Amino acid sequence: MARLADTDLDVFPLCLGGNVFGWTIDEERSFAVLDAYAQAGGNFIDTSDSYGRRGPGGPGESERIIGRWMASRGNRDELVIATKVGVDPDLQGLSGALFRRGIESSGRWTC
Length: 111
Description:
By secondary structure, the chain is of the alpha/beta class. It has one domain (17-109). The chain contains three helices and five strands. The chain is globular and about 40 Å long.
């Protein structure tokens, strides 16, 4: 594990990108990837409100899949989830307040 600077967060040195969840791989295969990563000691997952936008679930599907996986495995407290904002048409710009709203609306993956 590696400590993120100026935090108390210890993360696996390889962050798993969730951009394919709900786009090029379905939920079942996404769960298999997430399970394998966690079993290898991984705890650091990257996603975005835009991931999955090209798949049948639309924008945010990666976050929803990760959320359902965490809920089914009961492992939310063991993970560090990095997300990004920028797709929501109601959140134009990147002011601090809009960024916070975007992160909070990504709560679809918090358990």
